[in-house]
Write a structure and sequence with these properties.
By secondary structure, this protein is mainly α. It has a domain at 55-159: Four Helix Bundle (Hemerythrin (Met), subunit A). Helices cover 66% and strands 0% of the residues.
């Protein structure tokens, strides 16, 4: 049998469709019994709530507990208290929006044309960057006040993704 480009293309298309259908069918069995209905984001995909969907009070409580534990571990001296206070105040959330605020922002974005939306997103990005620069300066000033032993404790506690189990589902490459 002579294989032409047209017949090869047809066969490749059929094989691709069959394989795609099989993958879709198999993935439908991977969803839990209650499924992702009425769940969004991480909760739908991984069965737990995303940190941004919890109330801000829960986040603030965890942050407060973490900071008090860090302060105990650092065993700060009285002359280090001013730097600690600057460090804590610089870490206060400045850009966290309530759900209603986010919805209002979305409706505002819908009224803007593309260049206006881009300008708005750019200005918001600049605000976040300014906040990050301020926070970085406060951390560096505080870190400079610490003894080498305290710096080791701080380094261990400040590792990225420490205590963030919901990020462990990502494949490490």
């Amino acid at each position: 049998m002579k294989l032409t480009l047209a017949s090869f293309t047809k066969r490749a298309l059929v094989v691709g469709l069959i394989a795609g259908g099989g993958i879709l069918a198999a993935s439908s069995f991977a969803i839990s019994a209650d499924g992702p209905i009425n769940k969004g984001g991480c909760e739908a995909r991984h069965g737990h709530k995303h940190h941004g969907q919890n109330s801000s009070t829960g986040w603030e409580e965890k942050r407060s507990e973490h900071l008090s534990g860090l302060k105990e571990k650092l065993k700060l001296k009285p002359e280090q208290e001013a730097a600690w206070n600057a460090f804590v105040s610089a870490g206060q959330p400045g850009m966290r929006h309530a759900k209603a605020d986010r919805q209002a922002m979305r409706s505002e974005f819908e009224k803007l044309n593309t260049p206006q939306r881009l300008d708005k997103m750019l200005s918001m990005s600049e605000l976040r960057r300014t906040k990050m620069v301020e926070r970085t300066q406060a951390i560096k000033a505080f870190y400079g006040q610490l003894t080498p032993e305290q710096q080791s404790v701080f380094d261990a506690e400040a590792l990225p993704n420490r205590h963030r189990e919901h990020h462990q589902h990502r494949v490490q490459s």
